[in-house]
Design a protein that fits this description.
By secondary structure, the protein is α/β, with parallel strands linked by helices. It is built from 10 helices and 14 strands. The protein has a 7-stranded parallel beta sheet, sandwiched between helices. It has a 3-stranded mixed beta sheet with strand order 12-9-14. The chain has a two-stranded parallel sheet with strand order 7-10. Bound molecules: NADP nicotinamide-adenine-dinucleotide phosphate. The site of NADP nicotinamide-adenine-dinucleotide phosphate has 26 residues, from α1 and α3.
C-alpha cells in the first residue's frame, strides 16, 4: 500500500512510519515542515499546510491516508486554531481523499470527545470525526487516551506542572487517565489500514492501567506529595491566567480537570490484543531511569 501519513513527522507519526515500513508499505509524510532527519530514510516527505484547501496534489497517487495532524491540546488553547487545524484540516484531507478515490482513511481522534467536556480541542476533534463518518471513504477512527513514549509531549507537560517538593494540583484525584505506549498503539493503526474488518469502526483505546492525574504525577516524578486544590480556587486562577498565552493553564485546561479519560471496554481487544499485554507507564519510566 502507498500510505500518506499527514502529521507523520510528529510523535505518533514517527512510530507509525516505522511500523508501516516494516510491513512493506511505501510511506509519504506530509506536514508543514517535515524534517527528514527524524524519519526513516525510506520515507518520502511533502511540505503542506492542511488548513489551506486543495490538497489534491498531495493525496493523488496514494492508496490510503492517515490523519495525525495535531495542535497539542495543552499548548494552544485558543479556539480559532483548533478549529482550523483539526476541523478544517480534516475537511480538506477528506475532500481530496474522496476526489482521489482513496481506499482507506484512518483518523486519530481522542478519548473524551463525547465526554460533555467542552473545550476548543474536543469540539474541533468531534466535528472532524463527523466529517470523516459522513464521508464516502472507508474510514477507521481511533480515540486513544493519553499516549506516552520517546518524544511525547505528555511527560514533559506533567514535569512542568510538578514542583520540587509538593505539587498543588486542582482536580488531581478526579482526573482519570489510561496512558497507552506509542509502540503499542502504532501497530493497531497499521492494522486499521490493512484489515477490512475495521472499516466503519470507532475504537476507544487505552493502556493497561487507569491512573488519577495525581498518581500520574507521582509516577513521573518518582514520588513526592500532591495536594488537591479546591476546584473553586482553580476556576478563579483559570480565569485570571487565561489571557496569558505563556502559562499552560486557562479555562479549557480547567474544564478538562475532572475528565474521565479512560475506557471501560478497551477496544485493543478488537485487534486480538489483551490489555494486560500492553506496557504500563510505570514500566516505561523505570526503564528510562535505568
Ligand atoms: N499524543 C497524545 O497523547 C494523543 C492522545 C490522543 C489523541 N492524539 C491524536 O493523535 C494525533 C497525533 O498526535 P501527536 O501527539 O503525534 O501530535 P504531534 O506530535 O503534535 O504531531 C502533529 C503533526 O501535525 C503536523 N501539523 C501540525 N499542524 C499542521 C498543519 N497546519 N498542516 C500540516 N501539518 C501540520 C506537525 O508537523 P509540522 O509542525 O511540520 O506541521 C506534526 O507532524 C492527533 O490527531 C492527536 O490529536 C494524540
Amino acid at each position: 500500500m502507498d500510505v500518506l501519513v499527514a502529521g507523520g513527522s510528529g510523535f505518533i507519526g514517527q512510530s507509525l512510519c516505522r511500523v508501516l515500513l516494516e510491513r512493506g508499505h511505501a510511506v509519504t509524510v506530509a506536514s508543514r515542515t517535515p524534517d527528514a532527519a527524524g524519519l526513516p530514510a525510506a520515507v518520502d516527505t511533502v511540505a503542506v499546510d492542511v488548513t489551506v484547501p486543495g490538497l489534491d496534489d498531495v493525496i493523488d497517487g496514494h492508496d490510503a491516508v492517515v490523519n495525525l495532524i495535531a495542535l497539542p491540546s495543552h499548548v494552544q488553547p485558543r479556539g480559532q486554531r483548533h478549529e482550523a487545524v483539526h476541523f478544517d484540516g480534516t475537511r480538506h484531507l477528506v475532500a481530496a481523499s474522496e476526489r482521489a478515490g482513496i481506499d482507506r482513511f484512518v483518523q486519530l481522534s481522542g478519548l473524551g470527545v463525547e465526554s460533555g467536556v467542552e473545550t476548543a480541542y474536543f469540539r474541533a476533534k468531534r466535528r472532524a470525526e463527523r466529517v470523516v463518518r459522513e464521508s464516502e471513504l472507508a474510514w477507521v477512527i481511533y480515540r486513544p487516551s493519553v499516549v506516552f513514549g520517546d518524544g511525547c509531549a505528555f511527560i514533559p507537560f506533567v514535569e512542568q506542572l510538578a514542583l520540587p517538593l509538593v505539587t498543588p494540583l486542582p482536580g488531581g484525584d478526579q482526573t482519570w487517565l489510561q496512558p497507552i505506549w506509542v509502540e503499542d498503539l502504532a501497530p493497531l493503526l497499521a492494522d486499521g489500514l490493512e484489515d477490512d474488518r475495521h472499516v466503519g469502526q470507532c475504537y476507544e483505546i487505552g493502556g493497561p492501567e487507569r491512573l488519577t492525574l495525581a498518581e500520574t504525577v507521582q509516577r513521573i516524578r518518582g514520588g513526592g506529595v500532591v495536594v488537591a486544590i479546591p476546584m473553586g480556587l482553580a476556576a478563579v486562577a483559570a480565569m485570571v491566567v487565561d489571557p496569558l498565552p505563556w502559562i499552560p493553564f486557562g479555562r479549557d485546561q480547567y474544564r478538562v480537570l475532572g475528565l474521565d479519560n479512560t475506557t471501560a471496554d478497551n477496544d485493543v481487544t478488537a485487534f486480538g490484543v489483551s490489555p494486560d499485554s500492553l506496557r504500563t507507564l510505570s514500566a516505561s519510566l523505570a526503564d528510562d531511569h535505568r
